[in-house]
Amino acid sequence: MNDETTRGSRTLPTGERSLSLRREGRAPVKIDILRRMIRTGAHGRAQKLIERVHSADIAELFPNLSPGEQRTLIDLLYNTARAGKTLRELPEEILPEVLALIDDAKLAAIVARVEPDDGAYFIEGLPEDRRPSVLTLLDTKKRHEVERVLGSPEESAGSFMTTRIATVLDDITCEAALERLRTLGDQVEDVFYVYATNADGMLTGVVPMRRLLLSPPGTLIRDAMIPDPVSVHEDADQEEAAELVAKYNLLAIPVVDGEGKILGAITVDDVIDVIQEEATEDMYRMVGLGEEDRVFSPLSLSLRKRLPWMILNLATAFLAASVVGVFQDAIREAVALAVFMPVVAGMGGNVGTQTLTVVTRAIAIGELELTSVAKAVVKQVTIGIGIGGVTGLLTALAGYFWAGKPIFGLILFLAMAINMAMAGLAGAAVPLVLRRFRQDPAMGSGVIVTTFTDVCGFFTFLALASAFIEQLR
Amino acid sequence: MNDETTRGSRTLPTGERSLSLRREGRAPVKIDILRRMIRTGAHGRAQKLIERVHSADIAELFPNLSPGEQRTLIDLLYNTARAGKTLRELPEEILPEVLALIDDAKLAAIVARVEPDDGAYFIEGLPEDRRPSVLTLLDTKKRHEVERVLGSPEESAGSFMTTRIATVLDDITCEAALERLRTLGDQVEDVFYVYATNADGMLTGVVPMRRLLLSPPGTLIRDAMIPDPVSVHEDADQEEAAELVAKYNLLAIPVVDGEGKILGAITVDDVIDVIQEEATEDMYRMVGLGEEDRVFSPLSLSLRKRLPWMILNLATAFLAASVVGVFQDAIREAVALAVFMPVVAGMGGNVGTQTLTVVTRAIAIGELELTSVAKAVVKQVTIGIGIGGVTGLLTALAGYFWAGKPIFGLILFLAMAINMAMAGLAGAAVPLVLRRFRQDPAMGSGVIVTTFTDVCGFFTFLALASAFIEQLR
């Protein structure tokens, strides 16, 4: 079976013969065996071994092999026409170093054998100056296809659709459509939907495989199809396509151009990747991490990505510290203020972060449609007041026992309640405002909210204390 | 078309006629129209309106309707046999209040018309004391099916599989299998895979629809099938099933019992729901939120869920504060300590939270397989030292200018570097240790890490300062 030319099996179960390796034991053991085979030159046996493993499992071996071993493994995969499929399963962050081990001619041969979107994905993994030398080795048709994908907006529907779909005219019969499907054979990636078009290529409907099989053979496609199906524009964001597939429980969503002509389809397996990527992105952005910063990415990359963000963080920390600095005379006179000020600021930070998480996640999975924005904000502020009231009371008692002054407890209570109400407001408002201005609602929101709760917490607490400093001495 | 009895259309595109409503405008406008129709008793027109909208869109209307309007809408949906499908699309948190509006007889009729797993999902949405009265109204066969699902472990593969799959004996021909598929018709939910079994019902292989269509009619299933397919045990966690579907790009995964007999299959649309749920869960657990705490859930629920957690948080804040308390004499003598101590603790918290996010996400999406655990921890600690070194230097300069004493800068630098190294260690180790002890790696990890960085930050900084207090005065 030639996996390279039937990318379709990406959406089918395990194109490979068996998964026994995955089942027999954990990967590390197998790597040792494979590594030994590669080292001792037992390439025939290594080839037999990897033929029995799914591409997704082979991809996991790469980060644990030396460059030389990686090169041998690629050759073995290439010989069985599985190099493209396996490279496709590599994490995006690891791809460039593996591609660097493959020479231009071999890489062009791999690109020629995969779908244009996968080919474009490999080209994008190359340094800019190497791209033309690989592209020129492709035949004209393939090069144009790949360049079209490279030219579409990044993360757009058009850039990760498959063009190997089954389309039929809507005025033929179901029998004729089934016959056409048999003729198309392996040229089609997904055979769970057949897309119906008019004579101009405009998408008019979709026929699920089930209906095609069950309809009387003479039924016209037009009468069997679901008219006016959900579709997505080629320039739409991949996230929009993923949301539609998730919401309407689709297996694939057709991609159309501005005139409604069908260009391709996005399959559900790619949608799962997008959903996982977007979830990672949201979690990462809230704490100011770059997407490429993974457990396995090089140390230097993590440092380079995080340092500027941390220096920005430091600036906001100085801002909060300068608020404390303004009130240093009060602290000198009543040092209990220094003891309790992290409690006020920290608890506000917790409320803010929780609210931020609820609202950001609601925006991401479309839950905000289920309530009004104003209602959501009011609710979060009320929660802040409620939690601030209860924990403020407990803190007030602790403060009273510590300092022996009722007024200190009262100041603590007020500062906690005010800061947590503000934390609820900031946690809800920051992602909503970012979204309103068409920014990513998660972008750096964590640091904005905690800076706000720090500044607000220190200020409320220390300003109140300064006002009553006579009683606190 | 009867959606209630063809749950299959959940995996097919838009079982309904058209999505024009969704396209024409935003939901709020439509709710107003629908509400007016319901209020003025124009039920015929309301029925026509909702017939043109996808169940997933109708479900979004519920939270914005009054209970009376909700009841009318359910009746309208019930009349067109779409109540079950629409209820299935409601967020889990909203379901109970809607179910409370439906009487036992009608609810039993709805449960009877849907798949056992969906029926069980509705029963689980009822208060415990109401469940038996609905179950007894079902016929014996259906009741047993639903009770079987209710009896399987929560969030297990068995509890959310469909039993409406196509199985064939592996010794028949492809032609005979296609014929059987036509006979089964609407009784089958997914027709993209046909599952092959031996005479004992044991799963022996899977035949993708494509292969069934393309194979010569006389080919035996045994020769057309992919043998030994990926499958999942009925008691396995839903997350395991989701991971396999995502990793191997499947459209469905068969569910088997201990003997390898096929019981059903989990389809990819349900897997998408699981993936989104798990991502929400991870983000929520890191900041100590309960799953039911959504933007639209009642205020009282959010307060009830968050308060105990926040009181625990307060206790950890007191712990950090008591560290400050130990050093209050030093602070009184050098108040610059109070100004800079939030910087040391806060920057440590940032490094810790970032590291925690990288490692937690890596565990969740299986990226940790790509590197060794020890290597991952060492890397994160090194990042902490690197960032601590650079930001520590900047803070040292700021401290020197503020206090006018070089020793103060040196103390700040050392405290920052040490605390951030510890933050990298804690951020990486906490989720890994939680996982080692078979706990959720995200469970409350945020508060553990930030408590650690607060205590460690305050202690390192103030203890160093106390040692050099003579020079700081």
Explain this structure:
2 copies of one chain form a homodimer. With 473 residues, chain A is α/β, with parallel strands linked by helices. Chain A has helices at residues 20-24, 27-39, 43-51, 55-61, 67-79, 83-88, 95-99, 104-113, 116-124, 131-135, 140-151, 174-184, 209-214, 221-224, 238-247, 268-286, 299-326, 328-333, 336-364, 373-403, 406-436, 445-467, 469-472, and strands at 167-169, 193-197, 203-208, 226-227, 232-233, 252-256, 262-267. The first copy, chain A, is 63% helix and 6% strand. A 4-stranded mixed sheet of chain A has the order 1-2-3-4. The first copy, chain A, has a 3-stranded mixed sheet with strand order 5-6-7. In chain A, α12 (174-184) links the parallel β1 (167-169) and β2 (193-197). The interface between A and B is large, with 130 and 129 residues.
Short précis:
With 473 residues, chain A is α/β, with parallel strands linked by helices. Chain A contains 23 helices and seven strands.
Describe the oligomeric state of these chains in a short phrase.
Answer: homodimer
Uncertain segments of chain A:
1-29
Strand order of the largest sheet of chain A: 1-2-3-4
Work out the largest interface and the residue count of each chain: A-B, 130 and 129 residues
Q: For the CA atoms, what is the radius of gyration of chain A?
A: 30 Å
The helix tally of chain A amounts to 23
- Give the strand content of chain A: 5-15%
Major sheet description of chain A: 4 strands, mixed
Number of E strands of chain A: 7
User: What does the overall shape of chain A look like?
Assistant: elongated
Quick check: average pLDDT of chain A?
Answer: 86
C-alpha end-to-end distance of chain A: 84 Å
Portion of residues in helices of chain A?
55-70%
